[in-house]
Structure formats: C-alpha cells, structure tokens
Amino acid sequence: MLVPGSLPQSVIFGAEDGHSPSPSSAQRIQAHPADRPDEKRRNGCTIGRAFEAKVEEIPGAKVDRAWTIAMNKRTFIRLFSAMMASPVISPLLARATKDKLSNWAGNLEYSTDRLYSASSLEEVRKYVKKQHKLKVLGTRHCFNNIADSTDNFLSLKPMDELVALDPEAHTVTVHAGMTYGQLCPLLHSKGFALHNLASLPHISIAGAISTATHGSGEKNGNLATAVSALEIVTAVGEVIKLSRQRDGEAFLGAVVGLGALGVITVVTLDIQPSFLMRQYVYENMPLAEMKEHFDTIQSSAYSVSLFTDWQNQRISEIWLKSRVEEGHAFDATPEFFGAQRATKNLHPIAELSAENCTEQMGVPGPWYERLPHFRMGFTPSAGKELQTEYFVPRQNAVEAILAVERLRDQISPHLMISEIRAIAADNLWLSPCYEQPCVTIHFTWKQDWPAVKMLMPLIEKELAPLKARPHWGKLFTMPPAELHSIYKKLPDFIQLSKKYDPHGKFRNEFLGTNIFSS
Ligand SMILES: Cc1cc2nc3c(=O)[nH]c(=O)nc-3n(C[C@H](O)[C@H](O)[C@H](O)COP(=O)(O)OP(=O)(O)OC[C@H]3O[C@@H](n4cnc5c(N)ncnc54)[C@H](O)[C@@H]3O)c2cc1C
C-alpha cells in the first residue's frame, strides 16, 4: 500500500502487522543526514570532527563514536560518567542523544532511539533474554528499513576485536562489531587478505554479510561467501555455532540472514595470502563497445566496475582492479574498447574530487587500499544520497543494461551515478546470486525521495522479465509476492528463522512485509 508522501510498504518503517505507517513517517524520511564524526566531510561539506576530538581526549574510555552524533559536551560527560559507573549495558546512550537516530545517509530516522551497547557475549545474552523485541544495528549503512526497530536496538560496536588468526586453516575469527576498515590493515600486517571488499570499508562485517553485500569480479562471490562459521545468540539467549564444514544447509541458510535469526556475535572468514593490486581508470567507452564486448571487459581484470550516468550512449568510467601477480596482470594500454586511460585519479561522479577515492593510475598498493573505491577515514560515495541496486542473472546483463538505458531521460535528472558490477554464483539461500552468477545495476540517486519513489517501479517493471532481484539493504518497491517467487529457498529460510526465533523477537516491519508475509 502506498501512503502519499511516505515510503511504500517494502521500504517503510512504522506500524507493524500491516497497519498504516505512523503519520510522522513522511517527515522522518526527510530527516537531515546525520553528522558523521568518523568521516572527514569533503566535496564542499564541512569537516565535523570537533566533538570527536573531545571523545578521544579521555583516557581509557571505550566510547561508541558513531553514537556521539548529536551529543554536546555536557551530555557526553554525563554519559561518560554513567558508563564508567555501569559499563555493562547503557540505556543512557539512547537517552543522551538530542536528535533521533538515523541511518548513515540520513534518509531514514529509526523508529526508536532506545539503543543498548553490549561489550561481551554475556551482555548480549542477558539483553536478548530480557527484551521482547529488538534489532541489531551495525554501521547503519542500509538505505531501507531492514535494520529498523520500533522497540530496541542492540549495538555490538564495542565488540570489535580480532579473536583468532589461523594461518593453517586460512581463517580469521572476529567479533561481530568489527568493520572491514578495522580488520583489513590488521590482516595485511599478518600477511593475509580477504578475497574481496565492497566499495567502502566503513561497514560492519556482520551487517555486510547479513545483506549479501558485494564487490565486483566475475570470479568473486559476495562478501558473505567468505564466511566459514558464525556464532549466533538466538531469541532465548542460547549460543549456537554454525559452520560450513559441519552444518551444511543450516549454515548456508544462516549466513545471509537479514538479521532475522538472532544476534551474530562472532564471524569466521576465509583468508588468503596478502597481495598487491593496481587500479586503472578509463574514460568514455561507447555503449556499443560495452554491448559488443561485455564478457571480455568483465574478464579483463580481477574486479571491474562500469560507471555511467546513462547520458550520451557511453560508460563514463571503467575501474579495473588487477592483482600484481602472474596470471592476473592487466595490460594497461592507452585505449580500452574505445575508452581512454585517465591521466589523474577520478571520483566515480566526475565532478567530485577524487580525494576520498583509493589510489589509481596503476600505482601498486595493498589489496585493502585498492579493492574498495573509497578510503577509510573519508566520506564514501557522495554522502547525501539514496541507493537502489538490482541483480540480474549474468546471461541477461546486456539486455538489462540496455533496458535501463532506454529509461535514461527519466532517470538521469535524478541520478548521481550508476555502477555495473559482476559477481560469482554462490550457494547461500538468500543471496541474490544463489546458484547463478549475476551482474548488478546500481543507482546512486540524489536525495529526492518523491522522484526516486516514482522511478523504482519503472525500472523494476523493465527488469522483472529479466529476473532481477533487489539488494536487501537498498531501496526497492518490488512486491513481496514477487520476491517470494524468485527466492526458491525462502520457505526454508522462514523455517530456519522460526527455529531460532519462534516468536519473532528479531522481526521488524521490513521482515514482516517482505519475508514472513505469505
Ligand atoms: C556509501 C555506501 C556504499 C555502499 N557500497 C556497497 C557496495 O559496494 N556493495 C554492496 O553490496 N552494498 C553497498 N552498500 C550497502 C551496505 O553495504 C549494506 O547496506 C550493508 O548491509 C551495511 O552494513 P551495516 O553494518 O551498516 O548494516 P546495518 O544497516 O546496520 O544493518 C543491516 C542488517 O544487518 C543486521 N545486522 C547487523 N549487525 C548484525 C549482527 N551482529 N547480528 C545480526 N544481524 C546484524 C541488521 O539488523 C540489519 O538487518 C553501501 C552503502 C553505502 C551507504
């Protein structure tokens, strides 16, 4: 049901059980972006690190910096004293913020500001047992209401440590609050690497795997495919361990879990020996060349991203990330299928400064400083934006791209940039790449919700015959029935969720509408 001025059911937050959203929904989606003290704001934005510096000055404090968004100094001191007195779980954290909690992009104000922060497995268990309903918040980078709660949030941000590195088994085990930005340099310093990363390292590992977050590369599965074991606290506070080796189907169902099964507290990831990469960017490839040589282009480097604004029949930028080792090297000729090699670092949105982007121009560097497009410590992407992304089976890729291109006149005025990436098939039940290699068509929109809300159904209508699936963490309007028809393992996932959460403690409006409605 569409409510004028608010989000459609598949992306809205508000009342549960199919009731209309609360009247304040329309205002809430127009909320201003949260200040992000952990990122330097560039590209014409202010650099807002003043309060963060105050946090760092206090010795010994383990303070959740993402949640200092709106605290003034006095509030912080009050909160800090309370945390020192009772560092277990601090409901004060929620009360202390003046503004409402919102997601990273600021397009969604969450439905409660009751946020609790746990720093050990015991604290997680205690809290889960006590609450009737809750959601875990990762780093808040989803654009829809998948992480939203009307009741309680649990943050595992203080649980951000490396648990074990096993060089023999080629695995690393981490606490679930850790981000890729924290893990990767550490891993590299020990001589190891992950197989791939998303466009940004700022996101939590648990939050990323829960939505099947992906990078690019036709031989690379999404980030969840690196998971080899999980520790989860279920609705009754029980601790379960699932591993790829031991638990077969249950494990494959749990990894892309959309936050529905319980609280992930520990994640084990496959690792490989560290490697260096070079990144090259090319400009202005004619669309006809892309159409003619799509497969060759996709296979020309370890990771390939095509950026376009759908104007002038061209791919505006081609980002090629190549491993510096035998068999992977990309031959950086001055021309690449009609595109010209760039002569300076570029941002995917040409008019923005490349300062927040990873190094290009073929300069070799560690894998974790080349696989993402954006550097840790800087604002990724554009900041004030909305995102949508659709996965299509690899064999439908060119047809899907051309279908979107036909909508260029409607899309372009509201778009910042689109990105096209390839991802390998996997066997994770709710992965959009379940048993099929995919190509994704991504849209970074201007933050104009009324316009984007009108455009999504147009794009989805064009892509539906091509079996498109939306990104779980981005905006979409695809009806639940359609989702159910394209995820053949959804009934099994519902059964698995009910096993660990029989009364829906971890369910919210997003899950109720898109997964548990039948
Ligand atoms: C600028 C930007 C760039 C992006 N680039 C990419 C990209 O390149 N590729 C891509 O695929 N996506 C991309 N995304 C989307 C993003 O990766 C996903 O939305 C991801 O899920 C965000 O992780 P998070 O920790 O912020 O999740 P949140 O939004 O905090 O949570 C997401 C889900 O995970 C659950 N969750 C989080 N932690 C736990 C836990 N410990 N236990 C159980 N459930 C948990 C939450 O309950 C929720 O359901 C991008 C987003 C932004 C803002």
Outline the structure in words:
A hairpin with a 2-residue loop joins strand 14 (335-336) and strand 15 (339-341). The strands form 4 sheets. Strands 11, 12, 13, 14, 15, 16, 17, 18, 19 and 20 form a 10-stranded antiparallel beta sheet that branches. This protein has a 5-stranded antiparallel beta sheet with strand order 4-5-9-7-8. The chain has a 3-stranded parallel beta sheet with strand order 1-3-2. 51% of the residues are buried. It is built from 15 helices and 20 strands. The protein is globular. By secondary structure, it is an alpha+beta fold. Helices cover 25% and strands 20% of the residues. The protein binds flavin-adenine dinucleotide.
Q: Quote the average pLDDT.
A: 84
Q: DSSP helix count?
A: 15
* Helical coverage, percent range: 25-40%
Bin the strand percentage: 15-25%
The low-confidence runs, each spanning 5 or more residues with pLDDT under 50, are: 1-97
Distance between the termini: 16 Å
- Give me the Rg, rounded: 22 Å
